[in-house]
Structures are given as C-alpha cells and as structure tokens.
Amino acid sequence: MLTEPEWRAREEAHTTRMRPWTEPRQERRSRGEKHPVLDFLFTYYSLPPSQLERWQPGPGVLLTGEGIRRFLDRTGYVETADGVHADPVLPPKRARMARYVLSLLEATASRPPRLNCFGLHEWAMVYRHPPDQVRHAQLPLRLGSGGTDDVVQSLDIRCGHYDAFRFFTEQARPLNTLQPTRETQRDLDQPGCLHVGMDLYKWAYKLGPLVPSELLGDCFELAADVRVLDMRASPYDLSDLGYSPVRIETAAGRAEYARQQAAFTRRAAPLRERLIALYRELLATTEVGSESH
Fold first, then answer.
1. Residues annotated as region Disordered (predicted)?
2. Above 60 in pLDDT, residue 214?
3. Side-chain half-sphere CA neighbours of 247 within 13 A
C-alpha cells in the first residue's frame, strides 16, 4: 500500500529521471530536427515520451488518497473499497504475447554471451549501398563507401539478431555466418548482443500498466547507453554530435567494443531476471484468474 505522499514522490522521481531524454526528443520534433543516435529510442521503440514519463506502480500495489481517481482514466486500473490498483490479470492477447516473451527471455538467459560480433551489423546495413540511400544519409561515412565495404569484406559477420539482420543490404546478407528469422529468434538471441540488451526495454513496456516504472526506467536507461555504443561503433562519422568512434576496423577498437559489450551484458542480466520474474508472476495470476471464472 502506498499513501498519496508516497506514490506522488515516486511519480515525481520517475518523471524527473526520464525528462533528460523525453524533453529533448519533444523539442527536436517541434523543430523538425532528427538525431541519428537518440531518436531510435522513440522511433524503433514505440513508447511515446509522454507514456515513458508517466509513473505506474506495477502489480500488487494499492494506491490510496484523494488523487487516485485519475489512475482510473487509464486502461488497466480497478477501484476497490480501499483504493486503486492495476488489474494483474492479462487480457488474452497480452497473455499470448507474455508467454512468447517469457520463453524468449528464459532462452536468452540460459545461454553464454557471445562477444565477437564487433557491431558489424551497422556496417552490413550500408554495404555496397549508394551513398544517398543509406539509413543515415545526412551523416558521412568515416572511411567512405569503399573503405566501409572493405571492412565488411575483411571481417566475419556473426549477427544472430533478426531485427538487426533484416536491415542488412541484399549484398551483405550472404556474408553473415547466420541467417536469422523471426521463427528462429528464440534459438539465436544471446545475452551478449547489444540489440537483445536494448530489447529489454521493449519487453518491459509491452506489459503496459503492469510494469513498475522503476523497472521500465532501468531498462530504458540501459537501452539509451547501449545505443550510444551501437552508433559509436558504426561506420558513421558522429564527431559533429560529440561522439568519438569505437574503431572496430582495428584490433584495438574491437577489443574496446568487446569490453563495453561485456559490461552491458553484466548490467542487462539482473534486468532480464526481474522481467522473467514479473512475466512469470503475471502469467500465474492470469491462469488462476481464468480458472476461477
């Protein structure tokens, strides 16, 4: 149970925590500006800034006080004689999603991390592409088109994450040692992958009102930090935006990438376990609720 002063304090803390990302995003949109690094957190990942800022308690927390009725304006909250809480029973569509996500998270957690991909997925996305057709055409390539293609051809590409692989150029796909599909995602996702780590944020917000905002915020901050490494190791020149490159075309750069990748893997592991525990709890509650009806 949280009294109104308690939940309002948590609400304010969460909103303050998220605004260093949400406010600049909203300001850029109002000016029609794009940010090739940070916009990804709001375009590829679909949670709007306003919802990222919005605090929610998660399951098993009763909110009390005069201000609680505004939670009833949101989907997924119910009122009792004692207060308001999030309904812990997942609707059928969300329950099906939750079973799949839980199996994906558990499979990923069961595998050792692989740290030898060196971020080449971003390079494979521009391999042999006309310069005006690359994903971030406004950014120059550090090594030019020819130099970028040479790096792709000189190193083994070992990308196992489908949502990165699907953006490879047609010429780059046969160069990948793996050919991931949506159907093989549970078999191939592994905890060392930067995109698998960022996706913890997606698996958090997919639970809607049933993910505690503190966990959502932890997953978002991980995704934001991982995204920076993802783009620093890319073939793009981001110096005008204040990002120094991780030069994975060199042995020293690959070692630096693997070191940071390992650190993110360690940081992601407890978040993955917290999500697994939450998904298990919600599915168990949903099954009990279904049986009682």
1. 1-32
2. yes
3. 7
